[in-house]
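User: I'm preparing a small set of examples for a lab meeting where we compare how different chains pack in three dimensions. I only have the primary sequence for this one, and I'd like the structure in C-alpha cell form so I can line it up with the others. Please keep the answer compact; I'll paste it straight into my notes.
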Amino acid sequence: MSAALVLLASAVLSFASPDLPAGPDPSTAPTPPDGEAPVAPRGDAPPPPTPSTPTEPGDRSSETSAHQAGHVAAAEASQRGRRWFALPVLFWLPETRLGFGATGGLHVHLDGAPRPSSFFADAVYTLDRQGATDLAGDVYLRGGALVSGRARLVHFPDTFYGVGPHTTTGQREDFTRRSAELVLTMELPIVSHLSAGPRLDLRAEEIRDRRPGGALASGAVTGWNGYSAVALGGSVRWDSRDSAFWPQTGTLAQAWYVYAPEGIGRSHGFGRGVLEASRFLPLGSGRVLGLDGYVEGAHGDPPFTLLPKIGSTRFLRGIREGRYRDRLDWATQAELRVPVWRRLSATTFAAAGAVGPGLGDLSLRTVKVTGGAGLRFRLTDEGANIRLDLAASRTGVELYVLVLEAF
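Assistant: Understood. Below is the C-alpha cell output for the 407-residue chain.
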C-alpha cells in the first residue's frame, strides 16, 4: 500500500504544472546525502524558512490524513517551483481501516512575502463509510505574518466508551457524527522563532444513530444531541526546528486556548486549551531522539466529542482514538529515528499518558503505556515520509500507515 502511494505521488508531482518564474533560491544549502543531517547555509545567508506545522495540537488525526498529505504536496511543489500540486491519498488507521482520497491545490507568491502562500482542498473516504472534506489556506503576508484558515465537513461513524480513565469495552456504543467547522488563525512574528496571534473556532455537530438505551440516547452526556459554538482565543508558538517534517535538531513548543460563551450557538459555555512541546536531539550518523509532551484541558460544560482524549496515531499509538476521554489528559512519548538505507529509516517508540476529571485525580493507576516500532520511506527532499507503525498496548496490536510523523 505504501509503495503504491510512493509511485503515485512521484508520478503526479513529476508531471505538475510549468515552473514558476525564476526567483531567488530560498536556500543556498547543499543537499545532504541520505541519512545525514542538513547542512546549514554558508556565509551570512539566513536558513530557509521552516514549513508551518502540518497538524496542530488537538486535531483528530483520524480525520486529517488528507490534510497532512496536502501540506506534503504543497511543500514539495514549492521546492520544485510548481504553481499547483496534486497527490493521491492512501492510509490505514485502526479507527478507519483503509482510507483513500486525493488532495490538490496551488501556490501564490504575494509581493514582499517571505515565502509562497498555499491553498488546497482534499477529500477522503474509508471502508468504514467515514468521509471528510477540507478546504485550507496558508497566506504569508509582507513582514512574515501568517493567516491560516481551514473549513472541514465530516461524516464519521464513531465509538463512545464513556468518560473517565477506567471505562471498559462493555460500555462501547456506536454513533455517527456529522460536523462542520471553520478555524481561522493569525500568527504574528515577535522575535526569531516566536510567533503569536488570535484564533477563531466555529463548530457545529449533530449526533445520529445513537444506541437505544445507551448513555448517549439517555441524554446523560453533554453533547448527546449535538451542539454549535463560537469560540475565540489565541495561540503562541516557538519553533527552532530545522525541518517541520523530519527534524534533526531544534524545539517546537506551542499552545492555544479558546472559550465558547453560552448564548452564542447551541451549547453551554466551555473552554479548551492545549500545550505541547517537542525536542529533537541529534545522536550522530543521522540518528535522532525525539521527545514530546502534551497536555490538554477543558472546563465548563464541553460536548463529549471535544473532551481531551488519549489514543491516536499521534498520542499513545496502540490505543484507538477516543478510547479514553475526560476533562484533562496528558501524554509523553520518545522516539528513536535511525537511517537504514537511502530513503528508508526505522523507528522505535514508547509512550505513556492518562485522562482524568482533574489534576488531583491523576495517579499511576490511571496511566496507560504503549510502544512499538516502524519504518519510514522518504517521499520528499524536505523529509516528509510515509510511515508504517506497529504499536502495542494492553488492548492489542494496531497498524498505522499514513503520511507524516506523530510529532
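A couple of notes for your slides: The longest helix spans residues 65-80. Residues 1-52 have pLDDT under 50 and may be disordered.

User: Perfect, thanks.
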